[in-house]
Amino acid sequence: MNNRRRITVFAIISAVLIAVSVLLALVFTNNGGTAELILPDTQQPSSGSDDPGAENAPLSAEVTPRTVQAVIRTLSRPDSYSRSVVVESSWEGGSAQYRINSRVKGGKVRLSVESDGWDEVKNILLTEDEITVWYGSDTSLRYTAPRPYGDSGPGLGDELGMIPTYEDVLELDPDRINDAAYVQRDGWKIMVATTDEITGYDRYYYVSVDTGLLEAAEAFDGERRVYLMQAGAAELNAPDDSLFIAGEEG
Fold this sequence. Notes:
Elements: H1 3-28, H2 68-73, E1 80-91, E2 94-105, E3 108-115, E4 122-126, E5 130-135, E6 138-146, H3 155-160, H4 166-170, E7 177-184, E8 188-195, E9 202-208, E10 214-221, E11 224-231
């Protein structure tokens, strides 16, 4: 990547960082309020799933479109973990794939993003106070901006990593949840299906009952899949502190 191209990239990165949260929130979330639900009495899981093993699902709460948000509220994502994520997006006449290594430790997030056609890895470092972006191992041209005031949760790291989270499911209007069930997808997941009010896309979220992390998501425009996120198994050991220093290899 020549210097002129680097300068151009970093000149626009501020606008990108500011816009990415708004754009991805628009794509992946609805603005409806979340109804307060009470976790149902303990009973054998039962759902409309066609999965023949659904009766052996590991949780004891029934999952339905009306109860799924309450069930997900009983989960919590780990404070520290590492995992790899593949994100695929497609549109009329084209597609793109992104391979993301994600390391999380408390309020800090380190993302290393690769894509076909890119000359170098894009690095994103999110600390409690700042966002820093640089390419490859050269931090001489890097952009640093303050983290948005009042944003101390994990959501911004997910948005920068191009993925929704199960918190998005909690923000759905319950009346817009079309289906919910325990399903087998590389382990037991809570599946939630909804239709996006803005795009009309059918969206599917798969939340791990073991980690509380969203491990897969899909969006369909009719029969055509326009978005896929698939995460590998999460390593729950705390990443080394050196990974959260700009310029350190990770």
